[in-house]
């Protein structure tokens, strides 16, 4: 999940067990972005704020896989999110 201060959000879904690439499952601005962020928080989904990454992801269509050029950036976000889930704090 990525958001910025102009009230845009993009949600990605990644299922490593299926060998897939992260896909855009929700995106929007204004009220839709706020709803995406609210649902993410309610479901303990990691929210990552990166205006640069959001600028690219928001242009993708729902269901699109992230482009290969973003694999490293998104992999770092996913790895960080997984590390938070595994943190016993």
From TrEMBL:
The keyword Repressor does not apply. It comes from the Bacteria. SUPFAM superfamilies: EscU C-terminal domain-like. Keywords: Bacterial flagellum protein export, Cell projection, Cilium, Flagellum, Protein transport, Transport. One of its GO terms (cellular component) is plasma membrane. GO terms for biological process: protein secretion. The keyword Protein transport applies. Required for formation of the rod structure in the basal body of the flagellar apparatus. Together with FliI and FliH, may constitute the export apparatus of flagellin. Belongs to the type III secretion exporter family. This is Flagellar biosynthetic protein FlhB.
């Amino acid at each position: 999940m990525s958001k910025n201060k102009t009230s845009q959000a993009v949600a990605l879904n990644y299922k490593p067990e299926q060998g897939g690439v992260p896909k855009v499952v929700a995106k929007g601005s204004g009220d839709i972005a706020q709803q995406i962020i609210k649902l993410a928080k309610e479901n303990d989904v990691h929210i990552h704020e990166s205006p640069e990454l959001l600028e690219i992801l928001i242009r993708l269509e729902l269901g699109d896989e992230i482009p290969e050029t973003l694999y490293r950036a998104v992999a770092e976000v996913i790895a960080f999110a997984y590390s938070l889930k595994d943190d016993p704090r």
